[in-house]
Amino acid sequence: MAKESTLKNNISTPNKYRKNVLHAKLAPTCFATMLALGMIMPASAAITADTSAANQPSIHTGANGATVVDINKASEGGVSHNVYSEFNVDANGVILNNSGSSVNTQLSGNIAGNANMADGSATVILNEVRSSDPSQLNGMIEVAGQSAQVIIANPSGITCDGCGFINTNHASLTTGTATFDDNNKLTGLDVKKGQIVITGKGMDTTSSQYTDIIARSVKVNAQLKANELNIITGSNHIDTKGAAKAIAGTDNAPTLALDVSSLGSMYANKIYMKGTESGVGVNIDHANITAADTINIDANGKINNNGGNITAQNSVALKSGNDILNNKGNITSEGLINLSSANGAVDNSNGNIDGNDVYISAKQAVNNGAGNIHAVKAVSITTDSLNNTAGNINGENQVFIGSASGTKKQIPGSGLINENGKITSKGDVSIQATNLSNKNGSIDAGSTLGISANTLNNQYGSIRGGNTSTSGLTSISVKDLNNNDGSIIVKGKNSKLVISASNSLTNQNGTISGAGDAAFSGTLDNTSGSVSAGNDLVMSLSDYTSDSKSSIAGNNINMNISDNFQNAGTISSKDNISLVAGNSRNIAKLENTGNINAAGKLTIQKQGGYMDNSGTLSAANITMSATNINNSGTITAPGDIIVNGDTLNNIDHGKISAGNNISATVYTLNTEKGSVISAGKDVTTYIRKDFHNAGDIKAGEDVTISSSYKNGDNDNYGSITANKAVNITMNDSTLYNGGEINGKSGVKIYSKALSNSGNISSVGDVNLVGRSGITNMATGTITGYEVSTTGILNNAGTITETAAPVKTPTNSDTSGKKKKNISF
């Protein structure tokens, strides 16, 4: 092989012109023969100094065929500047002689010293290539003597096929042009064009602490191994500290800044890549990018990891001015993974992201369709739209999903789609989205769960809170919640479930359950649904509707319904129930056709409108207050029942039954035939207007009925019975009795007037007062131990005393009647 020094000395013209001469004078056959015999070195093995430049190094061949370059004297700053017309390295390698004395090398054994280094070795060896052809680096580049930074700069490009560095603390490949200040001090590199390609046998710079690849674009088709790898792409000025500032390029922008093909891979302790060119991105196609420490890729354009593996032990950071794609790819780290798309989307469809912490931020959408995002600690996703269809998002300590739009808290637009997807954490989950669709999906928090949205669709979905914690808050704040055929369950015994649906809460065939306290607000459609709380349940609703399969259960239940309440199912509590319904507009309805039962006290307060009960109300004690109460069902308590309102209608076989006392204070009391009001002790009613009884009113002890209304309409065509006394006071009204009034220990009736066509009886005394008169009609019977009347008595019926003798009362009229026991 001809020596480079001999070739150099024999060439008086620049190398590019010599090539033309060779091409003109040598016949193809002759040229091929000479090439085969080694008489001419291929371009891939040529290193030629630029004879037109001042900084020409001396080049010769050492032992073992390695090329030896005696580099130029170092400047005061320690920079040896060397200019070449071509710089190509073959398998024998190249030695950059940085020693002033003889020195042993790996490539060529012992070599003579470089006289240019007599005053000291260089710290930076700048190799500037002025050629229209890329440099071919197919072997090792060794620094002889003191270790130094080696810069190989060829604006036309560099191809590395089996290249590497020996005794080089900092290896730099670049397509930039060196820049100097007025004092000839190196100030940096101007990169305007050129590509660096890693191919074939690849590139290994692991013996160097630092490796730079600085070019307009970089293509990796083979294995690239380094310690700390720094890649900068785009048209830039790179200063001596490595900072990049964009400048104008000399040709069209490349399609990709960094392209790692399926044949390529990158392995390093640290990997840093900066792509500055607008819209020019990174492509990793089924390749491995692996770092023992950190990976940081920052590209102005799209980052596409198509089926590739990006793995770093301590952290992975991908930053893009456009989209980040991880389709069928893997991004993993034992530390932090941070994906940030400033203006685009993050697409992890069918991909895998797994780290200690995972932070994902996208100006537009995040797509995790059929993908997996997992963090040992926290997952944080901020975006304007998140698709997790059939995907999995798992932050073992925490999951946060919110908006990337400035100060907005909720993900706008389509929001979060988690259909057939899973969002889980052993710790806390926080979701803020304008719209959240969890159809057939699962949202699972071990501790605290917070959801804020305009609409939440949980149809056939599952939402779980407090699964691994005995306490914690599950809060769902929405405008509209659809839980049809879905489930919302909180398991922590001391936890709290709060659901606020300002418009509607639909729970048709759904389940909402809290093991601790629970609170709801909105309009609840609980048709065939179940709502329960292990402790207290508070419901502040505008409307409540249900059917026979509906249920509400809790320890203490407090329901406040502003408009309409329609219960056809079961509402039950282990302690007390308080039901407040209606408003001042008097248009609301409280309707119970189902069962409402409390082990403790049941309190029902209806403001305005009607309370209709055709079902069952049962509790230890019951208090009801309503404008109008219609009972055709059963109201029962082993203790007391208290009723307050305008009208009490006990109709259609309705039953009001108390083990102790019944107290009713109403304007009007109406009972129909077949209806029952019964108490184990006393029945006490205060009528402020009218009294109409066609049913049964009975007491284990006393019945007391009183009214102070003037000229009220009062009648009894049913039965009023007491094991003790019946006391009826109608101060300013007439009482018409066509039924039965019986008090075993006595009957007292005080009224403006009394008309009897029925039966008034007692084993004890009967005391009747009619200030305007007492009329005992032909069908009327009055029976008592002693019977006393006050007022004018008009008797056409039968009056019987079981005690004798008794004097005939004054003002009596007994004409036409038979006598029994006593004559009047």
TrEMBL record:
Signal peptide stretch: 1-45
Matching InterPro entries: CdiA_FHA1_rpt, FhaB/CdiA-like_TPS, Pectin_lyas_fold, Pectin_lyase_fold/virulence
Residue stretches making up the Filamentous haemagglutinin FhaB/tRNA nuclease CdiA-like TPS domain: 63-183
Keyword Isomerase: no
Region entry Disordered, spans: 804-824
Secreted found in the keyword field: no
Alphabetical UniProt keywords: Signal
Record SUPFAM superfamilies: Pectin lyase-like
Name under which the protein is recorded: Filamentous hemagglutinin N-terminal domain-containing protein
UniProt lineage: Bacteria, Pseudomonadati, Pseudomonadota, Gammaproteobacteria, Enterobacterales
